[in-house]
Design goal:
There is one protein chain. With 97 residues, the protein is mainly alpha-helical. The chain has a domain at 30-95. It has 3 helices and no strands. The relative contact order is 0.11.
Length: 97
């Protein structure tokens, strides 16, 4: 039993706020769902790492700062796309009960 005078962690406070919202529904994931989510995150991290390695090689070959900035913008957009794709995959996995 937790003493009411004990300070709450940030996680506990955040969970209380979420539970107070009407649209919050705590989802319990199965082990299979957790594994699929972990695999999806791992694959996305690998893709991002590969992109960064490729970008480093390309950056070494560029002749101007403008070209380097274009490459950096491209990788930033690609990372955002991959992360968005990951969130969609995770949401899809979570919905499957």
């Amino acid at each position: 039993m937790v003493d009411d005078d004990t300070p709450k962690s940030a996680v506990e406070l955040a969970m209380e706020k979420l539970r107070a919202r009407d649209d919050f529904e705590e989802v319990v994931l199965s082990d299979a769902q957790k594994k699929k989510i972990a695999d999806a995150r791992s694959r996305t991290r690998a893709k991002i790492a590969e992109l960064e390695i490729q970008q480093d090689g390309k950056l070494r070959q560029v002749a101007s700062l403008e070209e380097a900035e274009v490459l950096r913008d491209e990788i930033k957009k690609e990372k955002a796309r991959l992360e968005e794709e990951l969130e969609k995959q995770v949401a899809k996995i979570r919905k499957k009960s």
